[in-house]
């Protein structure tokens, strides 16, 4: 299996290479095989990418938004037409099962392109009457934006960042995660084919230092990062030196609260989706599942039954429901969490092992019950298929415990009592919330976190504000009244 691209980087409309950059081996998590060898961007390539983005952005911003939108729509149509090939590449890059990558990753990216293509032409300013004079405002592009991606949804992240950026007249330089660098290059190719002028979406490969270097360049107006809290803190601090705009989509330890009156099947289904989709490597996962005591034993019994039927295996097999973790490093981290959870006294309900083959980077869908708030499993982001089930008695108690976290990305509530659903969700400290649903992230809805989980929002109308700024123009219509 080989997935070697024509070059490591994509700059000013074509692939670029510089063998002087350190090697990045791209590994297929299904087998551990090296499927491509790329090079990190050298300073000369970084300079080319910045110069071409800065050059191209001005003319792009001067177009009518509807013209920019037309190109983004064409890119979305190309993504949909090539859905199968793109899904296969995403599976090679990430190890996620083909049944997920066909429906979730690129399709959600195409949604974002279509949504912002349609939204950008509707963005207008205000006119503010001042008696005789007036002020009008215009929302305009920021300039060159840097996007830095995580490895769990590489192509979706590239689209979610570039779609609003480009729609609003910005250029974007995107640095994918060094673990999953392939999808963004395909996106760059597709944009050119769709008619995007060269330079507006450049891709540079590299580890953290390449991203860090980009943020400090005076030509860069904004950085949007999807990654861990530790990286977010570094990137935010660096961006602050130049007072650059930021969007930070970081980690979480989100609560999913299941009341006694919830539908058992829905609660179990949501808890599984909230912990096992993409082998648990989803930032918004509801990894602290608070179950009210009256539901607890029924919930655990049904969860065990359903979780044990999940088909773990070859990600390219259409029947596979859960693939391996993305890397050997991630496997080591997740198995470490499992071992420590056992040592701390959490009760293993199911899973905990490496799956039927007992090799590869697989971890079985794992459920721990009787988890208490102070245990590591209730505090730290695992980023693997490991669910922590905690018990609770009262509404008041569960709200306080759910909020006792430094994270605040997402939260969910399951109950048939509609007043309670709204009352509880309104008190949870989280940016992205669900009632009787979990982990659905349509592009129409703003997505992002509070507290250490992030700053700013992706998707929805909210994203427009994060990729544009307001110019206010005072229009003098009366004689100038100078006191001198
Ligand atoms: P990571 O923080 O290790 O890396 C993220 C990206 O930042 C990578 O491209 C990396 O090369 C780059 N980077 C690292 N150090 C940098 C630096 N000093 N300056 C600039 N860039 C730097 O995260 P990861 O392991 O790739 O992804 C997993 C994390 O991402 C989890 O914590 C997860 O919760 C989070 N995540 C959040 C969201 C969200 O939307 N909120 C979505 C997906 C993943």
Strand order of the largest sheet: 14-15-16-13-12-17-18
Major β-sheet annotation:
7 strands, mixed
**Helical coverage, percent range:** 25-40%
Instruction: Indicate the structural class.
Output: alpha/beta
Subunit structure: Dimer of dimers.
Modified residues (Cysteine sulfenic acid (-SOH)): 283
Active site: 161, 249, 283, 458
Pathway: Amine and polyamine biosynthesis; betaine biosynthesis via choline pathway; betaine from betaine aldehyde: step 1/1
What does this structure look like?
The chain has 484 residues and is of the alpha/beta class. The chain is 38% helix and 21% strand. It contains 16 helices and 20 strands. The strands form five sheets. A seven-stranded mixed sheet has the order 14-15-16-13-12-17-18, sandwiched between helices. α6 links the parallel β7 (144-148) and β8. The longest helix is centred in the first third of the chain and has 19 residues, at 43-61. It is globular and about 80 Å long. The chain starts with 8 loop residues before the first strand and ends in a 9-residue tail after the last strand. It binds nicotinamide-adenine-dinucleotide.
């Amino acid at each position: 299996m080989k997935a070697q691209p024509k070059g490591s980087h994509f700059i000013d409309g074509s692939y670029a290479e510089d063998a002087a950059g350190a090697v990045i081996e791209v590994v297929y998590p299904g087998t551990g095989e090296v499927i491509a060898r790329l090079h990190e961007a050298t300073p000369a390539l970084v300079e080319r990418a910045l110069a071409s983005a800065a050059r191209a952005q001005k003319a792009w911003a001067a177009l009518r938004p509807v013209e920019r939108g037309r190109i983004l729509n064409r890119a979305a149509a190309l993504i949909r037409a090539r859905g199968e090939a793109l899904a296969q590449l995403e599976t090679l890059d990430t190890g996620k099962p083909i049944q997920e990558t066909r429906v979730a990753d690129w399709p959600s990216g195409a949604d974002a392109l279509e949504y912002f293509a349609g939204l950008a032409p509707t963005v207008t300013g205000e006119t503010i009457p001042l008696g005789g004079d007036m002020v009008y405002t215009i929302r305009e592009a920021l300039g060159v934006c840097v996007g830095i991606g995580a490895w769990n949804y590489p192509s979706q992240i590239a689209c979610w960042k570039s779609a609003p950026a480009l729609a609003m007249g910005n250029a974007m330089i995107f640095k994918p995660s060094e673990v999953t660098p392939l999808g963004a290059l395909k996106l760059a190719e597709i944009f050119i084919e769709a008619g995007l002028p060269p330079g507006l979406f450049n891709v540079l490969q590299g580890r953290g230092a390449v991203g860090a270097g980009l943020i400090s360049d005076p030509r860069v107006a904004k950085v949007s990062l999807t990654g861990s809290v530790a990286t977010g803190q570094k990137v935010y601090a660096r961006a602050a030196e130049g007072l650059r705009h930021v969007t930070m989509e970081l980690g979480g330890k989100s609560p999913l609260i299941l009341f006694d009156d919830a539908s058992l099947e829905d609660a179990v289904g949501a808890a599984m989706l909230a912990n096992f989709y993409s082998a648990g490597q989803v930032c918004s996962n509801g990894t602290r599942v608070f179950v009210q005591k009256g539901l607890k034993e029924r919930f655990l019994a049904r969860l065990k039954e359903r979780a044990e039927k999940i088909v773990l295996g070859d990600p390219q097999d259409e029947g596979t429901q859960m693939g391996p973790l993305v890397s050997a490093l991630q496997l080591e981290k997740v198995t470490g969490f499992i071992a420590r959870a056992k040592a701390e006294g959490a009760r293993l309900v199911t899973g905990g092992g490496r799956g039927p083959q007992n090799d590869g980077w697989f971890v079985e869908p794992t459920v721990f019950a009787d988890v208490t708030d102070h245990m590591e499993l209730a505090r730290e982001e695992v980023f693997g298929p490991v669910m922590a089930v905690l018990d609770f008695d009262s509404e008041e108690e569960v709200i306080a415990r759910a909020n006792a976290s430094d994270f605040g990305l997402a939260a969910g509530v399951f109950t048939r009592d509609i007043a309670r659903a709204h009352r509880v969700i309104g008190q949870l400290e989280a940016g992205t919330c669900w009632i009787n649903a979990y982990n659905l992230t349509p592009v129409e809805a703003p997505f992002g976190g509070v507290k250490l989980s992030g700053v700013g929002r992706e998707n929805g109308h909210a994203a427009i504000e994060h990729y544009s700024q307001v110019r206010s123009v005072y229009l003098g219509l009366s004689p100038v009244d100078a006191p001198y």
